[in-house]
Amino acid sequence: MGCLFSHTTATNDEDVDAKEDTPPIKQYSWDKRESIKQKDYTTITLGDIQDDAIFRTPGSINGQQLILHKCQNCAVFIFDHIGTASIEDCTKCTIFLGPTESSVLVRDCRDCKLMLSCRRLRIRDSSQSTFFACCPTQPQIESSTDLSFGPYQFYYPQLEDEFHASQLSVYNNKWHQIVDANPPKTSANYTLLPETTDVSDLFPLPDWCLSVGANLNKDKSVVPYVAPLRNAPYDKSCFVTFFSDGLSHDRARTFIQQMREKHPDCLLVQSRELSLQDAEAQQVFSSDKYAMAITQGPVIGLEYSGSNSVKVCQETLVAVSKGSTGLVFVSSSHDSARKQIDTFCRLAEAKTRGGSQIRQR
User: Fold this and answer.
1) Cβ atoms of residues 68 and 84 within 8 Å
2) Is 136 in contact with 102 (CB distance < 8 Å)?
């Protein structure tokens, strides 16, 4: 089945029960707030601007709707969470938007570079632009050409909290699963950037962004890098699950960083965060011993791919779990991992379509 790590001990999951004295889950002020769709929010419009910088600090937008239009040769950096956003008729712009709870529509844009995190990303009638995206649903393009896509890579101190405020998870990202409504018969309308791409070369960060602590360092990025599945051998995977206890995000982030630094050949190819019911946990883990753990909140599931993925994941988890009371599951073999991953991802897809993947906080 797998292994469940608690404190510094790793044992077979048949011998481990979930701890009942799990620390209280961290609470945020927005956990109980109403959906923005139920509120009458003001629309903030920024437009008809050339050769200028547009800068908004954390707390200045606070979930409002945003329209950005007719900007040319501008640097636009919105360091706050947004309700919904529209970017229209922009040319030669560098655009960063904070986490957007609903959709971002990009239309009639050319030669732009955009860093976007949102629930739905739609791109129409645009060309020669690069997108660095974090999106739990598949980005959709229509009547667009010469687009490039890469994974979201950004940090400033308030960013993770703003993801929570927008009810988005940094672990739900389908940046590379593009849906093209008008696929050509020959070459594609888009490409995926190589893994070796230096984001700072394509998405220049103005010096004045340093005032909010912003940077493009991959090791500090709030959203972990997920490699396209095209690079992963299907039968060499390992499944790792972090159960919620208020510190699961910190442990998962530390684990991902350690894996990237010490085992670069073992790739993170999928990540999901979702809530599980008893029957669903039984399907994933083939055991009812995780019933208590899943009641604490959403779980983080990671798929690593590599010839020694099970061994290196287990070893890294032992090191990461030292001194921790958190619970972590890891596959015991490639064969069991494949079934666990397929089941977990199938459940995640069903919850995404139903809109309940991470809103069950």
Assistant:
1) no
2) no
Compute the Cα dihedral for 78, 359, 244, 226 and give only its sign: negative
d(CA 178, CA 189): 10
Question: Which residues does residue 87 pair with via DSSP β-bridges, in sequence order?
Answer: 68, 106
One pLDDT digit (tens) per residue for the chain, 361 residues: 465 554 333 333 433 333 444 445 544 433 444 443 444 558 899 999 999 999 999 999 999 999 999 999 999 999 999 999 999 999 999 999 999 999 999 999 999 999 999 999 999 999 999 999 999 999 999 999 999 999 999 999 999 999 999 999 999 999 999 999 999 888 899 999 988 899 999 998 999 998 899 999 988 999 999 988 665 555 789 999 999 988 889 999 999 999 999 999 899 999 999 999 999 999 999 888 888 889 999 999 999 998 889 999 999 998 888 777 678 899 999 889 999 999 999 999 888 776 555 443 3
φ and ψ at residue 149, rounded to 5 degrees: -130, 140
**What sign does the CA torsion over 291, 278, 177, 93 have?**
negative
- Secondary structure (3-state) at 59: coil
Cα–Cα distance, 241 to 175 (Å, whole number) = 22
With a CB cutoff of 8 Å and minimum separation 6, the contacts of 251 are: 242, 320, 321, 324, 326, 328
With contact defined as beta carbons under 8 Å apart, do 20 and 44 qualify? no
Question: Going by DSSP bridges, is the β-strand pair 75-78/53-56 parallel, antiparallel, or unpaired?
Answer: parallel
Which pTM was predicted? Answer: 0.84
Taking alpha carbons only, the member of 329, 325, 361 closest to residue 21 is 325
CB atoms within 10 A of CB 72: 16
> 170: Cβ–Cβ under 8 A, 6 or more apart, which residues?
134, 160, 163, 222, 223, 224, 249, 273
